[in-house]
Amino acid sequence: MDATLAAELADTDAIGQAELAAAGELSATELLEAAILRLEAARGLNAVITDLFDRGRERAAAIDASGVVRAGSAGPLAAVPFLLKDLGASLAGAPEAMGSRALRTHVAQHNAWIVDCYLDAGLVVFGKTNTPEWGNHCTTEPSLFGRTVNPWSPLITPGGSSGGSAAAVAAGVVPAASGGDGTGSIRVPAACCGLVGLKPRRARTSFAPDGHLLEGLAVEHALTRTVRDSAALLDAVTGSAPGDPYNATPPSQPFLQAIRQAPKPQRILVSTCSPFPAPDTDPGVVDAVESAARVFEGLGHRLETGAPSFDADAVADAIAVLHNVSNVRLYSFARAHLGRDPREDEFEPSTWVMIREGFTTTGVAYADAIGTVHSQTRSFAAGMANHDVFLAPTLVSPPPSYGVLDQPQGTTRAFFDVEFAHTGWTSLGNVTGWAAISLPLAVNADGLPIGVQLMAPEETVLLQLAAALEQELPWSARRPAGWVGR
């Protein structure tokens, strides 16, 4: 593979690369080899922690031999190189440490349902990306694999927990990579790395064959550079597996088709403030939100300043409890894998705080946390009764430095107080189950990306609005210092 062509392909999104394959200009194997060259050029980012090159080459060769792509019978993503987050995207026979030293020798025994969807769509998986231990942190600096470097600056976190995927996409290694979002773990990396990050609505995708995570707070999807790639990937994974505890209403049309249409006028509620105790929102972030609001107003949407009300203290308490119980469950998983009790030094210090608190969490406290999530969702929804969409910052601060969002604070609640002081509204997308998308609408005075977030009960309107902003406030020409396509 010619290195110049490999670099040029960094500028081509997933649909664009699939179109090259469908036109017979490049094969799946050639697209993969180009991506591998870009990955090797970006090793210093530490975004990919497991190489699956042989597996990817075997799959690409099989796609080429089948002829389905050139015959025009494949979908819009066929033959595209793709990376999996090393959490929530199990691939049978591949290492799966989930960022934890306790699972450093663990190998997945089955494919996740969503991974089968990716493979059915014709994506070519050739590696797994770095993630913090069990997705606990909105930064990616696990002691097992080391920190992932943000392509925009080595001084700021790429976010988490999908930080490895975000860094790989932001650097141009791949056009898209998988992610998961429990309190902002797709949207925060998207904001830190200048990407599109959609958290689908609850139950849009399935965690099968595993159970749903964090009582429904977590949802799987991807990091992309374009809105159309996010829509196409969502089409590929939309649905439910037999036996799922709940299902989402199917969309009336494919998301990729829907974004070609302008949405009807929306009633948009706008807030630039954090719902949690936090310093004042960064002025650059405020400007980015207000700029998006002006664009929407010019497109005929109705804007109003305000915010839905809910009990922020109760929400933070409930999220802390759900994470404590989730970490005890994963501790038990590690114990089964190791055949012994894991040691404290096999976990991150902040993870151990959650495990320790989880051991003493009562059934009543757990049930109360679930009840709080439901009641606060109703309060939030009531506050949005006269509006269709909520517009707010993704991060209320600039992308933070390393060593901020992963440190133990004595209690799990105190840990999340630090996180929420930076992330603001992101966790409400998870609590309510609403769809939410972060868009890279601006850069600050230091040249670092700023994400702006939209939330709504369903994805279609968000993707349509996002496509409009992509046209009015384009971000495709912005490239980080660590861009490999130079």
Automatic annotation (TrEMBL):
SUPFAM superfamilies: Amidase signature (AS) enzymes
InterPro entries: Amidase, Amidase_dom, AS_sf
Top-level taxon of the source organism: Bacteria
Catalytic activity, as annotated: a monocarboxylic acid amide + H2O = a monocarboxylate + NH4(+)
Enzyme category, top tier: hydrolase
Any Pfam family the entry gives: Amidase
EC number(s) per entry: 3.5.1.4
Residues in Amidase domain copies: 30-458
UniProt family annotation: Belongs to the amidase family.
Protein name: amidase
